[in-house]
């Protein structure tokens, strides 16, 4: 999985999210576009870059994250790359870029307390904020979402669907966000039943993938068909069908959790 980190950047004594080293590199973001120099490196960080957040160290280099509202490097030396494209090309920089994007999103969307409305204070020892008025602590959001590949006939048929946001002709595994107090397994059963009217069982975890668009975590399962006829959920599913494992339709990109799930369950390229 490309959109992942083997570990987040690490902090060293004396440095924190509010106090990093005097020099380093910056993961400069414009939306989901990530800046690299013409040599394919992170741009040099400048203390004059507004809104910078120190992320920690990676391979001995101090790393900051910032929005492209002012530049620490010559703009003519920068090239812009989509996080999705970096992941699709198996570029390991996509993982750190996704981490930086989610940290920036957290601070930008948690400026005020959701309980009392007071301004939040950034904590010095971790990526988090606390309200000085009521004591509420908040941390970066991670929204868990399940993905389910349903098979039948001894694994020779797979249930795939397409929604309004899919490209024409592209089918994917079923997916949905978990509800409060819901287990991942219960979420799988509920989402599949709601979206296509099918009952499943024998759930098996396959893989997970962080998805920083903006802050999801995909958790993928393989399940076996128990019963029910396909009835697409209006507004969510345009079409759902059983496909032979040897004659699959067009699938999502190879870096996606859906593609990796299908490949892991069915095997082969």
UniProtKB/TrEMBL annotation:
Region Disordered, residue ranges: 1-23
GO molecular function terms attached to this record: hydrolase activity
Cofactor(s) needed: Zn(2+); Mg(2+)
Keyword NAD applies: yes
Pfam families in UniProt: NUDIX, NUDIX-like, Zn_ribbon_NUD
Top EC group: hydrolase
PROSITE patterns: NUDIX, NUDIX_BOX
Keywords assigned by UniProt, alphabetized: Hydrolase, Magnesium, Metal-binding, NAD
Keyword NAD assigned: yes
Protein name: NAD(+) diphosphatase
UniProt source species: Deinococcus lacus
């Amino acid at each position: 999985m490309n959109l992942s980190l083997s570990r987040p950047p690490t902090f060293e004594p004396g440095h924190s999210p509010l106090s990093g080293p005097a020099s380093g590199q910056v993961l400069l973001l414009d939306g989901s576009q990530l800046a690299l120099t013409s040599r394919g490196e992170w741009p040099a960080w400048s203390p004059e870059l507004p809104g910078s957040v120190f992320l920690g160290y990676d391979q001995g280099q101090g790393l900051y994250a910032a929005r492209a509202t002012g530049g620490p490097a010559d703009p003519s030396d920068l090239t812009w790359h989509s996080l999705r494209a970096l992941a699709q090309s198996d570029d390991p920089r996509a993982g750190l870029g996704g981490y930086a994007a989610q940290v920036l999103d957290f601070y930008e969307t948690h400026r005020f307390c959701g309980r009392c409305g007071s301004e939040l204070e950034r904590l010095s020892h971790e990526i988090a904020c606390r309200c000085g008025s009521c004591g509420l602590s908040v941390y970066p959001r991670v929204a868990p979402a399940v993905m389910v590949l349903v098979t039948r006939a001894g694994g020779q048929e797979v249930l795939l669907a397409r929604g309004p946001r899919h490209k024409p002709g592209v089918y994917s595994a079923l997916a949905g966000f978990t509800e409060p107090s819901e287990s991942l397994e219960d979420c799988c059963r509920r989402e599949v039943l709601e979206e296509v009217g099918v009952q499943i069982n024998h759930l098996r975890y396959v893989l997970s993938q962080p998805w920083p668009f903006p802050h999801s975590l995909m958790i993928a399962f393989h399940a076996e068909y128990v019963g029910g006829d396909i009835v697409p959920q209006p507004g969510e599913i345009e079409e759902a069908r059983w496909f032979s494992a040897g004659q699959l339709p067009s699938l999502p990109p190879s870096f996606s959790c859906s593609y990796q799930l299908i490949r892991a369950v069915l095997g082969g390229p």
